[in-house]
Amino acid sequence: MTSFNLPDLGEGLAEAEIVRWHVNVGDTVAVDQPMLAVETAKAVVEVPAPFSGVIKKLHGQPGDVIATGALLVEFEGAKGEASPANSGPHHIATRSSHGSGDAGTVVGNMPTSDIELIETAHAGGSAHGHTNGNGHAATSTAHASTRAQADGRIRAAPAARALAKHLGINLAAVHGTGRGGVVIVADVLAQSNISTHRTNDSAAPRFAGGERLKGLRRAMAQSMSLARDNVTNCTLFDDADLHRWPEGQDITTRLLRAISMACKAVPALNAWYDGDTQTRLLKSRVDVGMAVDTPDGLIVPIVRDIGARTTAELRHDIDRLKRTARDRTVAPEDLRDATFMLSNFGMIAGRYATPVVVPPMVAILGSGRLSRDVIAVENGFEAHLRMPLSLTFDHRCVTGGEAARFMAAVLGDLEKDT
Predict the structure, then answer these.
(1) Strand, coil or helix: 367
(2) What is the model's pLDDT at position 362?
(3) Which is it for strands 52-58 and 71-79: parallel, antiparallel or unpaired?
(4) What is the pLDDT of residue 391?
(5) What is the pLDDT of residue 340?
(6) Which domains does the chain have, with CATH numbers?
């Protein structure tokens, strides 16, 4: 019998919800054949078979929330394995069998749990682990285990670390059973005393007729709780005078250009901050997350490198990301590692707001509904088109002066005639 656990789908997420199964018990599957669709905090992802074989048992039903690393499928006669060259957001190139520990829990080029993530106090911590200067996940391989053990740092697989953080478990109290004593997902699950899948059925809803949040709304609740507990939000308000704009201006691309110019003028707001280690990483490239409203909740795809793109390129990418977000086909790589956030809520309603900063980012700009306001000028009064702006920043690492200069730079660019 060969077991396959729910992998870390490249996001460092601690759980996913089963949307639907594509296979049944007794089916014969081939390598890379889609087995099920799961919904993470960011997208619906197809999980393919890691090898060929006969489905012996499925663990979990649609609607169940499954912990990363929990048992998902049991196979008979498993053979072959997905090619590592095909591994990525939708291909799993790992294998899990009895006695193999934490294998089968990571997507991509991390085939076993013996690749460990060691806590360090350097700049570049992201929401899902520490990163290097280019914003990519930085991992320590097994050759560093002796050094890590000597200086007392905790040795754990990335998926195990993400799950422990989600469950509030101190990794120092977990006995590692992986190779060389590395803490693996099974160790965290054993410490937490939770079953292989968690549906929260043990707690009844407090309200008659109420339903538990799932999918994007559940992810939003978790993200906002994280922000509430870890960010000191402060919001600055102002209005951009668009009186000089010619007809036909693209509001969103103008906003992105203004953000890019402001990030160059005040780099402190295009950064990641790790409150646990009090380290800040300034980002040279501006990757803006744009909240897209869908019936199921908010999705935040990323517009990359906005300072190096033409208006036409930005518009093409915005349209693509909105389309894929609304039909839930947005790729995982389009959802990770934003450096700044934009909430264009004024397209619906509202002038001002207090947008919430989501760590590890340190700032978010909200643009409100445009209106014509009466403005006093030298010789009387005029009606000017104006855009309300709300800039929220993390006051732990961004000063009021930096935020005000950033807002001034945004206003200065938006108020140009072209």
Answers:
(1) strand
(2) 97
(3) antiparallel
(4) 98
(5) 98
(6) 2-192 (2.40.50.100), 219-414 (3.30.559.10)
Question: What DSSP element (H or E) covers 394?
Answer: strand 380-394
Token reading at 102: 């934490």
Closest CA to 159 of 41, 18, 13: 13
pTM over 0.85: no
CA angle 306, 322, 20 (to 5 degrees): 130
Helix (H) or strand (E) holding 376: strand 371-377
- Residue (of 82, 101, 77, 100) closest to 34 by Cα position: 82
Residues of the chain with pLDDT under 70: 10-13, 41-42, 80-153, 158-159, 162, 166, 179, 192-206
Closest CA to 151 of 127, 130, 121: 121
Q: What does the pLDDT look like over 23-81, one tens digit per residue? A: 999 999 998 899 998 887 667 788 888 888 999 999 999 888 888 888 899 998 877 65
**Interatomic CA distance for residues 29 and 21, integer angstroms:** 13
Q: Give me the pLDDT at residue 204, please.
A: 59
238 close to 389: Cβ distance less than 8 angstroms: yes
